[in-house]
Design goal:
85% helix; mainly alpha; 108 residues; single chain
């Protein structure tokens, strides 16, 4: 039995890479405005992460009903960890937007 090359697995991903390469170049070429745009995208990812964590917690509570105290605390802990990650992403995105605004004021 002949072994196939793993490089053939990357071939279907090549068009995705080529299409996604140009927006990343555009963000880099935009300078401070690109940094602000990327910051807004990071803030959106943080908000989506927080909302998904709350959604998963509410889904577990609704589907499984009243759980034991330890299970409920474990689910709440998971939600808080994911929410903290979302808050960090939001803070980093806000810092990027502020940095871009300062850069546009002073350098532009």
């Amino acid at each position: 039995m002949r072994r196939q090359s793993e490089t053939l697995l990357l071939l279907p991903l090549l068009p995705i890479f080529l299409v996604g390469m140009f927006p990343m170049f555009l963000i880099a070429l935009l300078g401070f405005f690109g940094l602000a745009l990327f910051g807004v995208l990071v803030v959106c990812a943080g908000l989506a992460s927080s909302n998904e964590a709350h959604d998963n917690f509410n889904h577990d509570v609704i589907i499984h009903g009243n759980a034991r105290g330890s299970e409920r605390k474990a689910r709440a802990s998971d939600m808080h960890i994911a929410t903290r990650l979302g808050l960090r992403l939001e803070a980093v995105g806000a810092a990027m937007v502020i940095t871009a605004a300062i850069g546009l004021c002073y350098a532009g």
